[in-house]
Amino acid sequence: QVQLVESGGGSVQAGGSLRLSCAASGYGYSTYCMAWFRQAAGKEREGVAAIDSVGGTSYDDSVKGRFTISRDNAKKTLYLQMSSLKPEDTAMYYCAAGPPELWIGSDAADFNYWGQGTQVTVSS
Question: What percent of the chain is modeled with pLDDT above 70?
Answer without folding.
Answer: 100
